[in-house]
Amino acid sequence: MWQELGIALCLVLVLEGILPFLYPRHWRGAVMQAARLPDRRLRLMGLASMLLGSALLYLLH
């Protein structure tokens, strides 16, 4: 199980690094916009992301 968790975390790092590598200016602007969002909006976006990821993982597994 620990090996699979490590693989998953490595894939997250690879996927999150694609946009800053390919489009650094646009990525920086998106991060700056996200920094101005209220905490409630960020929490809802995080929750939606976790639920979507969990649902997709359940469907694929």
UniProtKB/TrEMBL annotation:
InterPro entries recorded: DUF2065 (IPR019201)
Q: Does the keyword DNA repair apply?
A: no
Q: Which UniProt keywords apply?
A: Membrane, Transmembrane, Transmembrane helix
Transmembrane stretches in the record are 6-23, 44-60
Keyword field contains Mitochondrion: no
From the Swiss-Prot or TrEMBL record, give the protein name.
DUF2065 domain-containing protein
The scientific name of the source species is: Pseudomonas sihuiensis
